Amino acid sequence: MTHRISCELAEAPLAPGEVAIVGAGPGDPGLLTLRALALLQQADCLVFDRLVSAEVLALAPCRAKRHYVGKAARCHALTQAQTNALLVRLAGEGRRVVRLKGGDPYIFGRGGEEAEVLIAHGIAFRAVPGITSAQGCAAYAGFPLTHRDHAQSVTFVTGHGKGDGELALDWRALAVPRHTTVFYMGLANAGLIQRQLKRHGLPGDHPVALVQRGTTPDQRRVVTTLDDLVAAIDRERLDPPTLIVVGEVVRLADALAPAEAAAMPLAGAPDHDADRERIAL
C-alpha cells in the first residue's frame, strides 16, 4: 500500500536521515492528505505534538517509535530547543523521521523554526501542508470562513504572545465589518480580545463562535456574541484547544446545521490520554 501511494503521487521515498515536517490536520484522520499518509507509512519514528489525534498516529507502522513532544500552556514535554535537538539526533542516526504537527506545520506550528534548524545542520527535509484548524473546525461547525454576503477576507491570528509576552496586534485592522478573524490559542486572552475589538469599533452583538476540539468526536460549538464571549467560555467550561471565530459568517451556523450533522464523526470519543500512556516515548 505504501509503495502504491508513493508511486501514484510521484513522491520520492523518505530517505534514511531525512525529516518530513507533516501537517496532521485538525484531528479527523479523514482530513489527512494522501502525501502525508504516504510519508507516515514509511516512518521509522514519529515526533508528534499534543494535537495530533490517536487515529492519525494509528496509521503509522507499529514498528515506528513514537516520541511525544507536546506543548500545553506552561507544560511542555520538551522545550522547543530539545525538540530541535531530538530531530537532529534521530536524523543523524539515519532514521526516517516524520515530524507530525496538528493542523498545518507552517501556520502557528513552529514548522519554519524547525526547518531552519535542519538546514543549519545540513539535514534533508520536506514539508507537507495540512488542513489548518481554522478551515476544518469552521466547516465541521457549520459555517464558512468567507462568504460573498458576509466576509470578503479572513485573518488567522495567534491568541497569545511569544512566551508570556503581550498580545500585540493591529486591532484596528481586525475590527472591521465583512471580515472574519480566527484566534488560535486565544482562551487565556479572551478578555483582552473582547475589550480591544469593541474598543476599535465592533459592536457588542457581533457574532462569535467557539469551537472546541473541532473535527473530532469531542467537538463542541458555542455560538455567542462579543459581549458574552468571556462569560460563555466560563459558563460552558471550555478549555484548549478551542478556536475563537469572530465574524458575520457565524450567523450561518444554524442555517447550515444539516451540513454540520453530516460532517461530524459518529464514533465514540477516544481516550487520548490513555492512548498516549501506552506509547513508548
UniProtKB/TrEMBL annotation:
Keywords: Methyltransferase, Porphyrin biosynthesis, S-adenosyl-L-methionine, Transferase. It comes from the Bacteria. It is an enzyme of class 2 (transferase). Pathway: Cofactor biosynthesis; adenosylcobalamin biosynthesis; Porphyrin-containing compound metabolism; siroheme biosynthesis; precorrin-2 from uroporphyrinogen III: step 1/1. The keyword S-adenosyl-L-methionine applies. GO terms for molecular function: uroporphyrin-III C-methyltransferase activity. Residues 19-229 form the Tetrapyrrole methylase domain. It holds the Pfam family TP_methylase. The keyword Signal does not apply. Its EC number is 2.1.1.107. InterPro entries: 4pyrrol_Mease, 4pyrrol_Methylase_sf, 4pyrrole_Mease_sub1, 4pyrrole_Mease_sub2, CobA/CysG_C, Siro_Cobalamin_biosynth, Uropor_MeTrfase_CS. GO terms for biological process: methylation. Belongs to the precorrin methyltransferase family. This is uroporphyrinogen-III C-methyltransferase.
